[in-house]
Design a protein that fits this description.
The complex is a heterodimer of chains A (about 240) and B (about 210). Helices cover about 20% and strands about 25% of the residues of chain A. With about 240 residues, chain A is α/β, with parallel strands linked by helices. Chain B has helices at about 10-20, 35, 90-95, 135-140, 200-205; strands at about 25-30, 45-50, 55, 80-85, 105, 110, 115-120, 140-145, 160, 175, 180-185, 190-195. Chain B is globular, with a radius of gyration of 17 Å. Classes of the chains: A alpha/beta (about 240), B alpha/beta (about 210).
């Protein structure tokens, strides 16, 4: 089965649908699928729900889809860096579901592993726990009961992720902290499209160092990435 | 006698917080004053976690050596160390939720005498999100809050009950402020230490929470 496509637009052909749930990798602007986001903008797909830790900035990342009003809802843990996002949210145009960051990551991982729900202590006693099932488990000191809430696995229609290198079977290798949400996001989609900086010859990736096996990747493209830095910080020499 | 001689400044608070850390600990530092704690660990063997997927966080890079693929949870460019490892977000919060991180040092808007913590939203103001704060306070071994004792209106941030939406319920172990160090214990807060030039009476006067 051929996984490698010529461009981001070709790789998304036939998998985009208005109203779909898309899981996207990335943390801030680090490791975001910038080419696929641009292609979704070009395709004009509407009413999208994105499960993504952040919403990009005004002119990069998911921000470019907010400008064109293609996003109906965000499932995120932190959205502070995007003025257009805030404008649409405060005016009621955009729906927002806050998930604690670890809960969001685990919802993706669980969905990808066929687990529809799990219990976590995160958010107990906060607004996050409202309306959710509470259950005690004997996990405290000497088996003392502790309260957990149930969170659900996330099953996305489409995953879009960014990796450093791939082979043509879709085995992926990430680089440094650009890995972040990409593996769990890739796992939870019915279809996963990955963009990489380089597709290397089959056999040149050490099988022991592959971060995400190609079974999770359906389509693949290679392209040049801007890789924008959000907060450039340095120390004196 | 000037007023600024009383209490600790940001760096003294960070230095005091660093005393909480022990050799061999894996630690997560929040944004703001907690970030400064890294400057005061001295010879102790401390590994810093950045919850976006890194253990062994190094200092900011030299100019020209920034790497877009290497950032901390505050989205700042950083560097790696010889001990560094990288992992995905689910694994990162697995180690947090699983209690493998010994301590988190965090800022706060309010702390209550029962250990409730509020540091993520002010109703009616712009809500940016909780990020990883709720996971951290629910999962790590010990939660240490470093913050000013009072807000900009001079009101105590150590309260009988939090007024803001919570980040976690009963999660705080120790509070380090510009006026001293307090522990959350049965029935309220216990004074552990007073800052330079601060008496126990000063601390009691500045604190709304019950001091036992």
């Amino acid at each position: 089965m051929k996984k490698v496509y010529g461009s981001a637009s070709e790789a998304l052909e036939g998998v985009l649908q208005d109203g779909m749930l898309i899981a996207a990798g990335g943390f801030g602007l680090c490791g975001i699928p910038e080419l696929l986001l641009q292609a979704i903008k070009d395709a004009g797909t509407k009413d999208l729900t994105f499960a993504s830790n952040n919403a990009g900035v005004d002119d990069f990342g998911i921000g470019i889809l907010l400008q064109t009003k293609q996003v109906r809802k965000m499932i995120s843990s932190y959205v502070g860096e995007n003025a257009e996002f805030m404008r649409q949210y405060l005016s009621g145009e955009l729906e927002l579901e806050f998930n604690p960051q670890g809960t969001l990551a685990e919802r993706m991982r669980a969905g990808g592993c066929g687990i529809p729900g799990f219990y976590t202590k995160t958010g107990v006693g906060t607004v996050i726990a409202e309306g959710k099932e509470h259950k005690e488990f004997p996990t405290g000191p000497d088996g003392a009961p502790e309260t957990y809430i149930m969170e659900t696995g996330l099953f996305a229609d489409l995953s879009i992720v960014k990796a450093w290198k791939a082979d043509e079977t879709g085995n992926l290798v990430f680089r440094k902290t650009a890995r972040n949400f990409n593996p769990p996001a890739a796992m939870c989609g019915r279809v996963c499209v990955a963009e990489v900086e380089e597709i290397v010859p089959l056999g040149s990736l050490d099988p022991d160092t592959i971060h995400l096996p190609g079974i999770y990747v359906n389509r693949l493209i290679q392209g040049a990435h801007e890789k924008r830095i959000e907060q450039r910080t340095t120390r004196a020499a | 006698m000037t007023q600024q001689a009383k209490g600790w400044d940001r760096n003294r608070m960070a230095a005091r917080a660093a005393e909480e850390l022990e050799d061999g600990m894996y630690v997560n530092l929040g944004i703001g004053i907690p970030t400064l704690v890294a400057n005061y660990v001295g010879d102790k063997d401390i590994t810093l976690q950045s919850e976006n997927g890194m253990l062994g966080m190094g200092p900011f890079p030299l100019e020209g050596e920034e790497d877009a693929d290497l950032i901390n949870a505050g989205k700042q460019t950083i560097t790696e160390l010889r001990r560094t490892s990288y992992f995905d977000s689910a694994t990162s919060f697995g180690m947090i939720r699983g209690g493998k991180i010994a301590a988190a040092i965090l800022g706060a808007m309010e702390v209550a005498e029962n250990g409730d913590l509020a540091n993520w939203m002010i109703p009616g103001k712009l809500v940016k999100g909780m990020g990883g704060a709720m996971d951290l306070v629910a999962g790590v071994g010990r939660v240490i809050v470093v913050m000013d004792h009072t807000n900009k209106h001079g009101d105590s941030k150590l309260l009988k009950a939090c007024t803001l939406p919570l980040t976690g319920k009963g999660v705080v172990d120790r509070i380090i402020t510009n006026l001293g160090v307090l522990d959350v214990v049965e029935g309220g807060l216990r004074i552990v230490e007073c800052a330079d030039g601060i008496s126990e009476d000063d601390l009691r006067t500045a604190t709304d929470a019950t001091i036992v």
